[in-house]
Specification:
465 residues; alpha+beta; 6-stranded mixed β-sheet; 51% helix; 6% strand; disordered C terminus
Length: 465
């Protein structure tokens, strides 16, 4: 069973303080109980032990808040097995907090309150990583949502260097900063936590959908199925999507893109050649967000024949997400920056270039985009450079700032320089990500917002992230 991607925990509106605290307690479990996992980081058995070890060894504390079974958390758990990352992690003290619906205790609640600001009324994003000073109080940096192995590697070495300026770690091609890196701000959100549905809830949802429960009932029941990798749920949704049921199809695709486990990736692949450009676009965006390497063949096949510019842009982002080191991926991004007539596609190619795990090509292509004729493409290149946080890129940005004729783009270039100088976060690029890149918000789209474990509707907060 699986939870929603980028999940957050928040109590029902109007709950009393004890109820609010109990809501958070009910969603926490399994702190540091990972000894049985093969080739994992060396997790401390308790919060107290982690604090003591960090203080004694004078090493940063790495806190990982995960939602086991949710696609981004599962990808991170897999990343922890990387040999180089495990070697690097020997320079920090590791503490893991798992969020689920089974049990919780004061210790786990204390961890979340202290480092994520998860007081009884405050939601928090999971998965989430926080690096803490050996004093056990000062947050050095944090990064919400999914990270690649290279981003985890960058995040950890950056934190170690903040405590020990003499620390050196060899830079690999895959290393780049997490997109949601924060030095001072906490990632805010207003979305609810969708806890994993039980087998009985999946069965009930299917039965209700077969009987027909009205529009609102259908939304709630589809949301239950789409956050589960139960075979019966996947089979039912697949059968319904094959019928292409108008508006519901669009909502289901949006939810799969944002929340569903990778078992639903083949459904997105099936829509890549749909006659409707809006549905192809949603499928391409979803495959970028899902980042399943098994979708590589379908993505490249459609990229060669796609006629809709916006869909092509998302297919480029998806290609880099699933195959960041492949020569074919580098060639596709290179070709787009040189030959694409549509500025949106070139802007997406600029950002895709920044996510490549062949550093020489990433830098070369971002620099090319920085000299594009379109101001939006130049702005996207500045964002891509800021996201990587390679200090050497300041040399490319400085002359571009001086010569930039477009006032808005100049502000983006200046912001990128601020980020690269480690005086700011990428939060300032949120408007660019929405306006120029048209990136979707995280969490639930309009369907099923606010469902709790029992599938009941909750009022109050809407989608966020």
């Amino acid at each position: 069973m699986r939870a929603a991607a980028g999940a957050t925990l928040t109590p029902p509106p109007g709950a009393t303080a004890p109820m609010q605290r109990e809501t958070i307690r009910a969603g926490l479990s399994a702190l540091g109980l990972c000894a049985g996992l093969q080739a994992q980081l060396s997790w401390q058995p308790s919060f107290e032990a982690a604090l003591a070890a960090a203080a004694q060894q004078q090493r940063p504390l790495l806190v990982a808040v995960l939602v086991p079974g949710e696609r981004d958390s599962d990808a991170l758990i897999q990343a922890y097995r990387d040999a180089s990352l495990r070697k690097l992690a020997s320079n920090v003290v590791c503490l893991r907090v798992d969020v689920d619906s089974e049990r919780g205790d004061e210790e786990r609640l204390q961890v979340l309150e202290r480092y994520l600001g998860a007081a009884p009324r405050a939601p928090f994003v999971a998965p989430h990583h926080v690096l803490v000073h050996p004093d056990g109080e000062t947050v050095l940096s944090s990064a919400a949502h999914r990270m690649t192995v290279g981003q985890l590697e960058w995040f950890v070495q950056d934190g170690v260097r903040k405590v020990d300026a003499t620390f050196r770690w060899p830079r690999s091609d895959r290393m780049r900063a997490p997109t949601d890196l924060r030095y001072q701000e906490r990632e805010e959100t207003q979305q609810d936590l969708l806890l994993p549905p039980s087998k009985q809830q999946v069965k009930d949802a299917i039965q209700a959908l077969k009987k027909g429960a009205g529009w609102q009932g259908a939304i709630q029941n589809y949301t239950t199925l789409l956050t589960s990798d139960d075979k019966s749920a996947v089979k039912y949704v697949g059968a319904q999507l094959s019928g292409g049921r108008g508006m519901m199809t669009g909502l289901v695709l949006s939810t799969i893109s944002r929340l569903s486990p990778t078992a639903y990736a083949p459904m997105l692949e099936d829509f890549l050649d749909n006659r409707r450009a809006t549905q192809r676009r949603e499928a391409a965006t979803g495959l970028w967000m899902m980042a399943s390497s098994k979708s590589k063949k379908a993505i490249f096949k459609q990229l060669k024949r796609e006629e809709d510019p916006e869909t092509r842009g998302w297919l480029l982002r998806a290609a880099v997400a699933v195959a960041p080191k492949d020569k074919a991926t580098v060639a596709a991004v290179d070709r787009a920056l040189q030959k694409e007539d549509d500025a949106f596609v070139r802007a997406q190619a600029a950002v895709a270039a920044g996510a490549l795990e062949v550093r020489v090509d990433a830098v070369r292509l971002m620099r090319r985009a920085l000299n594009d004729d379109d101001p939006d493409v130049r702005a996207a290149a500045a964002y891509a450079m800021a996201a990587r946080r390679d200090q050497e890129l300041l040399g490319a940005l400085e002359p571009s700032v001086r010569s930039e004729p477009d006032a808005e783009t100049k502000r983006w270039l200046e912001l990128a320089m601020t980020v690269l100088s480690q005086r700011g976060d990428l939060a300032g690029f949120e408007r660019l990500r929405r306006k120029i890149l048209k990136e979707p918000t995280r969490g639930l789209p309009d369907m099923g917002r606010g469902r709790n474990r029992g599938g009941q509707q909750r009022g109050g907060e809407g989608g966020g992230g």
